[in-house]
User: Fold these one by one.
Assistant:
Number 1:
Amino acid sequence: MSAVAVSATSLDSPHAHGLSGVASELQSLLGADAISVKEIDRLAIAHDASHYLLVPGGVLRPRSADDMGAIFASASRHRVPLTFRSGGTSLSGQAVSDGLMLDTRRNFRDIEVLDSGRRVRVQPGATVMAVNNMLAPYGYRLGPDPASLSACTIGGVVANNSSGMSSGTEFNTYNTLESLVFVLPSGTVIDTADADADAQLRAQEPDIHEGLLRLRRRILANPASVATIKQQFSMKNTMGYGLNSFLDFETPVEILEHLLVGSEGTLAFVASATYRTLPILTNVSTGLLVFDDLITAAKMVPTLVENKLSTAELLDATSIRVAQRTGQAAAALAAIDVKDHASVLVEFQGNSAEELRTLEDAAAPMFASLPVVAPVEMTTDLSERNKLWQARRGLYTTVAGNRPSGTNALLEDVVVPVDVLGETCQELGTLFDVHGYEDSVIFGHAKDGNVHFMLNEKFDDADKLRRYEAFTEDMVDLIVGRQGSLKAEHGTGRIMAPYIERQFGTELYEVMVEVKRLIDPTALLNPGVIITDNPRTYIENLKVAPAVEQEVDRCVECGYCEPVCPSKDLTLTPRQRIVMRREVQTAEEHNPDLANRLRKDYEYYGMETCAVDGMCFTRCPVLIDTGDLVRRLRSENQNKLVATGWTIAAKNWGAVDAGAGVALDIAKKLPFPAVKAVTDFGRKVMGEDLVPQYKKSLSAGGKHRVAHPDVRAEIVFFPACVNAMFGGVDGDGKAEPMNATAAFEQLCERAGVRYTVPEGISSLCCGTPWKSKGYTDGYLLMSDKVLSTLWKATRGGELPVVCDASSCTEGLEVMKSKVTAAAESQLKNGVRAGEADFAKIRFIDAVQFTAERLLPGLTVTRPLDSVVLHPTCSVTHLGVQAQFVALAQAISPDAVVPANWGCCGYAGDRGMLHPELTASATKAEAREVNERSYSAYVSTNRTCEQGMTEATGHTYQNILQLVEKATR
């Protein structure tokens, strides 16, 4: 078995024959789209956050838990192993497979809030953040709080018994679980919430029922086993199976239920989990304790634990430096003159301000006695607290993103009794030096004795691989010698499976082997994970990360970007767009024919269905905007004739914009089938990525933009061309002269705010159409025209520019930043005298300007009963969602932002070119919106309004239109 996995050398599956039989059987049962053996699908899902790589023989997307019995039966008949994949954030190799990969994220995201938030029932594909967002209005949250909560899903949280920053062992899944619905390899389905669940298990699975009782008797009869289990599970511990289940519970169904927690998909499929939730403690104070060195900091942890701190997060000197380099560090972190310093991030949480003060007052003498280098200051300021926590939560991915090119970042996860944490950290540091690992980072949940450390390793170098082997052996000796656990919360996976017996001893390891044999006798589920007879599994199938392109080389494949990607359920996610570029490069070296096939599929999967909305950037801890990659690829692969046409359009945009409006007017007057037939024909002849599909709900053309001079103006108004191209609509979808542009002008006049619209406005555009499509020549032409005009109109940046479409406001900001960055790269000493300094131009979105400047001068006379909002990706990038919500709340007592809102994928004309993208992106939000009725449906951008209209069947309008109407 090769140590390094080079996926593109061959995609032949060792289970190819069996997979053919499974595919044939399941396609007839589940539908042709349920299973894929396409190379791009297999390679894309092969990558997760771990440093292991196995390419599945096929990808299966079950529709529901009801499908699992048939899937298990077919796979068992054909001897094809199954592995479950949901968020793909696991780090230990427990979610990779060369068998059949079951995607349990796409169709398993239901969340049901119970008992006013005190309980919640969740399917495995829902992220922790999504669950907490649903619980927040009730004042509750989940107990587990992993750092990856924005991307990790309940399936993985259950499978790994994840904990996190403050949950410790008390509030992990094992201890906050109320019930599970699971499917055993035999197809038996058990809901442990049923009063007769144990009787059902005994009747349907008598061997498992009796076998579990037998194993419990075996453990209880061995005092050494009992002592080991109690000691090991007094700490965080995700090594092997949770044998504490045999001590904590008596009935087989309860034992099995809790054995499944932390079983990493090796025993059953968890179809849903019902949790007991925790109240959100809103009175919180956070502080940073800074010590001279790591050893001193670690030795103080027992003292901190005694003083009722809810969290104590350790950061070594390298961690502090990394946080400082982001430029976004909290003041307490930024102020450290780092030498050998270490810090502990601590937090108090209380039910009331009085309880919080009591906790802080009680701890004051302890804080005063600590050997800290600066006085301890606790803060309740939300902004500072968020900055402190962001430094900790983003540490792994930030450090990993700055690793040397071509190396992999390995995050290890160990736990020891708290009283030996200090000396253990010291000895870990010695091991780093002995084995030549430079700039290794130590951080983690010090309160629990749980630390993480990160190494950078080059797995395709034989000498480096031997170094990693030697280090691992020494590290195992150290942690086991301290009576610790080699995995505290990341799961055993493949990385630590060979060491379970060394940690627990032969007797308890044999019990674990018997658990696997009892429940999954044919090793159908996730073979090689937890139980293995291969002592080298931790150094086989290791992933390499070749340097491909500057935009994305620092990607660590963490998957944090995936939940916000509009194409995640259609084609590829940002992580997958990046890994497929790596796979294409590898294939070019080893299998050119494969490279050509992947490149062809990537055109649709990677480029045509990417909305380039930048939402991935908002979640990426190493600040990658995969849209930048896609825009460059579009530019490099552009049709020269079409690109020339767009350059000509940039020179004559006034005529193009007006012509498009006239065309929409004509189309609206013609029979819809006739117009659609014309566009359908054009799409067939010229290509779906070039010709938009005409939709019945599209509006007629808008009003031509004209200049509005006013020497006493307070602002420069930049009416977006999209509002001239597409006319306004009322709540019934009928033509409405009062579109966003007219509404903003009316609101300004009503509030007594004077504005000017620059000369030549009809020929100006924010440039987004050219930028998103990669037409760089046209974009540069438009940028020069727009910024030169605005420089004059704003009197050299004296007046702010307000735009009435959020995506266009963002487009103007990006245009300015690109042009000024280019100028700065050419002029090291700044702008020459007399030249325009476009960096001085200030852009404000009309939503923000209306909320902050106009609304105080308006009176709401016609409020709406209810309104539902669709925040756009541009609203997120601009940071004006709060103002958007404030406007809605000003005109309605019932303003709702759906919990499932996200980018609609319309992306200018992308939703007309590829309507399947918008349909997929809006599915969850549309379903939530249509659970009730609203008086109005609003957004902040015309094309996004169109996308949501198509998705929900309700007409979306611009928020400015509704504010104008409500304040007449």
Number 2:
Amino acid sequence: MTTVPGRRSSTFTRLLRHGFIDPSAAEQLLDLNAFASVRSDPVLLEALGATADPDLALRGLVRIVEAEDEGERQVLLDTLVTAKPLRDRLLGVLGASEALGDHLARHPRDWQALVTYEAVDLHPGVAEFERGLAEAVDPDSLRVAYRRCLLTLAARDVCGTTDLAQTAAELADLATATLRAALAIARTAAPEDAAQCRLAVVAMGKCGGRELNYVSDVDVIFVGEARDGVDETKAMQAATRLAAHMMRICSETTVEGTIWEVDANLRPEGRNGPLVRTLSSHLAYYQRWAKTWEFQALLKARAVAGDPELGAEYVEAVSPLVWGAADRENFVPDVQKMRRRVVDNIPVDRIERELKLGPGGLRDVEFAVQLLQLVHGRSDASLHSGSTLKALRALAEGGYVGRADAAQLDEAYRFLRSMEHRIQLYRLRRTHLVPEDEADLRRLGRSLGMRTDPVTELNRAWKRHASVVRRLHEKIFYRPLLDAVAQLAPAESRLSAKAAAIRLEALGYADPAAALRHLEALSSGVSRKAAIQRTLLPVLLGWFADSADPDAGLLGFRKVSDALGKTPWYLRLLRDEGAAAENLARVLSAGRLAPDLLMRAPEAVAILGDPEGLTPRTRAHLEQEVLAAVGRAGDAESAVAVVRGVRRRELFRTTAADLIDSYGTEDNPAEQDHGALVDRVGSAVSDLNAATVAGALRAAVRARWGDTLPTRFAVIGMGRFGGHELSYGSDADVLFVHRPREGVSDEEAARAANTVVGEMRRLLQLPTADPPLLIDADLRPEGKSGPLVRTLKSYEAYYRRWSLAWESQALLRAEPVAGDEDLGRDFIELVDPLRYPLEGLGEDAVREIRRLKARMESERMPRGADPTLHTKLGRGGLSDVEWTVQLMQMQHGWAEPGLRTTRTREALAAACAAELIPAEDAQTLDEAWVLATRVRNAVMLVRGRPGDTFPSDPREVAAVGRYLGYEPGHVGDMLDDYRRITRRARAVVEERFYGAAS
């Protein structure tokens, strides 16, 4: 074609109008001599323009035409322009699949497989595909025949002759025929093996469910039996050789490419188990060892090849085990574990493009449907289907899933699977990633019928359907439960009370009857409160079920809603603040402490919706609030009541933040730096208690003396209080020191100081709804026998004359926390030479400290306690680590400024930096200390009362495990890890504390 320079040809313009991206290249291809008879035919251009990728379709057609003999070439072109069915099919495939275009270029005569258009050709089954593969006698010819059959299947798909479900079923039927053909080739190659055994091939996964992808591993299980008179061992060896050969025939790459991988890893024991087992061996394994996920996989088991009777026997034998799986002991923790999306191994840059495993992906739908089948299929045979879409329809018809939800999921699943099919069809590669390239997205969108702006339309539809799945895949478990109790839609099928109880029990609720009562109370009626709660509860119930105690979470939510349900801001908070509802669910279902704190003042739930609400307040901020409240109060009791209310609120803030950081949320994963978690809690609780003590001190002084006490007075934090390492259940260890003001007698000052101490302790322990703060002054000179409060001079005299090694060691944690700042600093100056003695400790002092530690280990361990699990006094626990660190502080603190800290982890890091302890040993001690501290915190969070060892109640110890990051069913792993970590720490203590030279 010739055109005026600078002007585009009419063909170029037409090609552009028909959707070609590179009209110049297309025009050159049409100018080839081979296309002389058809290049100007408008029918051809229109057909090319109707494909997903006109440029790709034309290139594929050129390759076929060039590969044909001259005579056949004209037959193809003539048929192409005169026969619309062939034209649509051939060009449709060429525009959607580069891989099938490659096949046709290698085997150009295969285009003739697309010419026939009989009724039976429209919906072939296994028999038709078997006929299509009948001439295959070796792996290469099987691959060619397979691709020829796949060509006709893909043509029906891209032309819309078959829908998604029919296409997936045909792909599974083609796989069935291919497995049979491969097994026949293997048998022909080894007739002696075939004569010794019966071998059945059972399809699993998508092939078993007749919902296969274009390119997917074909999951199978092999069952074998010896033929009459044949030794079973020899028969199993023969069956194994046949099965392995059949797998290679399908999986290996030859000059004709590959078909797909045959994956037998779903068999008992996975890759470690024998490839072929007898039926009795399969059943013995499933009855004794199988896990819940294996029964979930068996939902789709279907005999497809080999001995049909043996395959049918297998499916019939495992069926009762599948539908009885919900009665198994570990079903609930297994379900909790399986319900979490496994996205950890997906690279961050790919997770948003994952059609299968990403949030709102195909696996969300498939798993939800399969779980509901397992729960309700034991009493309803209509749910016994291997097909996701058929099972979803049956669940809706039975009232197990709301019809509207099922319809939305059906639509979303079909769209996402169609995307997956088209992505795989392009190069016949196994992938679930949405492409990033603009041309690939354009082809994908056009293949799904989007023509105006295919890329934008595709992205919009994909995100919309993924959002539907994300929203509904959890709700479909729970929304029918609400329908069962609220009874607001009488025309729709709904769960019976029995079915609702079964579902709740399967999802981890120990008392389904009580849970249903709570749901009825929360969701019944036509009030705004009930309507909002009906919207929230499906999601909340999923979060509760994700915890160790779903019943407590639901009960707590009912209590909070009863208290605040008529408060407009509460319902608005949960409805509009996405994080608030999830945070509340985590807090209410993780143990007793946080819910108890919340129930005493439910309005604190507002903290959970504030972006900054979970950040601990600083000590200065807390003291300012507390002292201002004391100044406004009329008397000491009411003043400290306000102070203790602030403490309760801040304790709730700290526990809530700790739980949410430890559990993680859907948007924010769990905090992986456990040391940082421990430090945050220790600092927050210590600051809070310091502010509380300051408020009680101010209240006690104001009630009797106004603004000025006759003596300067300071509170010195000791132990974990001074070390900023308080746990939730710790007492406040303190010393009280005073110094008479000028002109005040020692007697008057002493009376005032003792009166203040007594009043502070009384006020902080008054019986109220708020948790008390116990003041412990037993670390004072002479212990319980000594005066409760001393002057600074008295401390100086005592320490100069009588101080023992343990008292100097205790002073390592001394830090002023309230009262007169100058007096506090003077006290620290007084004790610094004692706790960091010049030139370190002498040998006698080191021996005394070691002797005291050994005596404490033998005398103070509670009777009957397991020393390997006691967090404070046990092997490698808190005491072991702290005494080891404190010994280094007393020996080297005079020379190493970094050791002069009250904090254990800071001191340990400084000792490591000063090369006083190897980095590996320091890491071992730090890991053990952090773990033991977290266990103590977890016990208090779960039980609502302090404890130094793991709970004995199974649900409580499971909750401790969840807080520590262990999945359901892994309590044993948690205890083993604790023993292992602390055992290693004890070995370091033996060397560094007991064995190291001073």
Number 3:
Amino acid sequence: MSFELHVNGRPFDTEPRGGQCLRTYLRERGWFGVKKGCDAGDCGACTVHVDGEPVHSCLYPAVRAEGRSVTTVEGLASRDGELHPVQQRFLDAQGYQCGFCTAGFLMTTAALEAERDSAHDDGKLDDLPRAFKGNLCRCTGYRAIEDAVRGVRHTERPCAGQAVGRNVGAPAGPQVVTGTARYTFDVEVPGLLHMKLLRSPHPHARIVAIDTAAALRVPGVVAVLTHEDAPATLYSSARHEHPTEDPDDTRVLDDVVRYVGQRVAAVVADSERAAEEGCRRIEVTYEELPYVIDPEEAMRPGAPVVHAGKGPEARIARVENNVAGEVHGEIGSVEAGFAEADVVYEETFRTQRVQHASLETHGCVAYFEPKEDGSGERLTVRSSTQTPFLTRRALCALHGLPEDEVRVVAGRVGGGFGGKQEMLTEDVVTLAALRLRRPVKLEYTRAEQFYGATTRHPFTIGIKVGARKDGTLTAVRMRVVSNTGAYGNHGPAVMFHSVGESFAVYRAPHKKVDAYSVYTNVVPAGAFRGYGLGQVTFAVESVMDELARRLGMDPLVFREKNVIGPGEAMHSPIGEEDLHIASYGLDQCLSVVRKAIAEDRSTEEAPEGWLVGQGTGMAMIATGPPGGHYADARVSLLQDGTYDVAVGTAEFGNGTTTVHQQITAGALNTTEDRLTVRQSDTDVVRHDTGAFGSAGTVVAGKAVLLAATSLAERLRTLAARHTGVARHLCVLGAESVDCAGRTVTLKELYEAGHALGATDELAADGHWGGSPRSVAFNAQWFRLAVDPATGEVRILRSVHAADAGKVMNPMQCRGQVEGGVAQALGATLFETVRVDDRGEVTTAAFRRYRLPQYADVPRTEVHFTETSDAIGPLGAKSMSESPFNPVAPAFANALRDATGIRFTELPVTRDRVWLALDRKARSAGR
């Protein structure tokens, strides 16, 4: 059988394998712009054109492309390199963040534009919710994508030294829109082996025996690894600067499984198909054990013990009660505070599991490379991670390797949201690579992301608040139970953080908290945007709104009366000594909301008969994790007169690469196009804790600023030495130094440094330890309408106020806010990882899980306060996590205003709204 197709004008005649989809066929031939996001036709990241028609290539059989012309995103541009108009518009609008979904949106848009004014034009480009019903974006909130389609330009090219505060485009933008940005698996590794994992069908069981003989007989299978091959060392998959923050309760492969989906064995083969068949052939004998799903039940005496037998070295708070960690604290006496109150309100709130749903799944490739000194080989692990340095540290400790024998590098990462602050694949892949001395790849499927990765922690928050008639808070008490699942990765830390700033933002003389992180036999939870604050803020802001209503006060006035002010000490029962209000914008945030309420006319857009309401939520968050978060940076002058910026933090749509460029360009009085950033590679700098806790700007950015500022001074000193001109008369410019009228090019200065033996003056280092920390503030306001007949809720207007200090890049920061609001709306309205009575995940696909689509997300008006932080670099504060936190309570408060019903459980789905309205109507009719 002869087979031929053309891809981007090039002929290919290799016949596809039986059942092979077009996506894998294209990627195997180097067209890496075609992405794997779901393998089910749900996300659109794999969209290509077949004879001009857009198709989801993960569903399209490769054999059907015979005799056809296929165009991928790499083929959109003209042969002379000129961008397709759609690519240029996405670049100008920066219609992307991580960029993993971008090729799909580009290909869909380009196909629809090609149909314009033709017989096939059905008007989809004028109806983008319909046009993009097959495309998902987890990062942007879709507004930037709409602007790109409509041709709205946001990017700027500022003059030398003027980059900070301007809309500088992401340096990887041209690669993102042409499909040439290299994500984790966009590399060709000769001799690559593929790993697949056999997972547990039981919520709790002991492995009595594993028979791998049949698996090893499968053609192509090279090895089968079980708990007998794995180190006995206990560790945590969570990555923190201080490993003691998490319980050591995990093994690479364990002889006890604790949830449905836990890995039991790893099969390594020369193809994914062979590895999958090998998994099916493994015979496992299990001794089933009692299991527990509910965290309250798990803490009761006599409940099944999830980690029975582990000792104090595991740092589990109370093994026998399944308590991974706990915190108890009281300021004053809450009982006395409630006795002083005129009004007391008490309620219990519940939040659900949520998946990060980054479009690039977890995975890594491990391979061996020659050492630079020729003394042998070292292991390189290319991973989709937010923490390359901490992952290297953990791998070396686990496998007994010196750090100079291991390199961990992250390419461009296709979304994180905290989910990649874990070591979920690198440990087992490294085990296989070391055993076989061959390159090994493990890439999670979308289903594995749901049952084999981590989720947001489900919380139950019991909260009681009291206030005097004048609205002064007297007492706040909370009991928080967090379900950490089968393992404690991030469990105690999330629990601890959840009752920090959420408590401290309100003044009350009496405060008390009892919080528990509890093991159960379900999929583990982990780090997620907001790190516990979003869950508790939902409860706190809901009760404050309700208390204000019961006092007959405007909820905004009530908040203004009770929130902490500038310069005040923050008090919470857990205490955080290095946390300061180094700038204060909460008053401005609330003023934005007040103005929106006063000027709003969106009620006129509500359908007749619908209930209309408005509501606010606010939040405070620390601008970095506690306990130290470290970053090293190095800025160097290169021989060609340009600069190299080396920094450890990873880029996954958070925009830190752009900000680091802007900071450096400002300090060196140059333009961003004269800078190259090298990052997320353990070879690049000495150390970087990682891209989490909103630390990319305030920690790594500060290290970059210190390095760049130091280099500027060194270059001026070197220029003065080279020319004999006084140092204060040497002015650094974009491409040269003006030395009292004499121009010394940066190339000449580089050569002078070598000639004078002053090569140390051509580079400078910066370090920042992440402490002290400041706080950022956010406020969200909604006006919405509710159909009492169906429970449908429409958001009429969405306004968000953000206190980000000096906004380094308004375009990017706005995108972070919009993306955070969109993700939080998903968690508020419909997203939930459901588990059955055995703890098994039942929503292991996008079409069953329900991510926000284009049609679901309103345009949010974003307003930045005018503040400058005394701690952050150039006055900046963090703004990656914080926009998420006030969204759910703002929505719930608006719903309460419209319906008179207090919703206490997330998500607030349409059926829940209808049922609550129906119950209220029936009750009123009695």
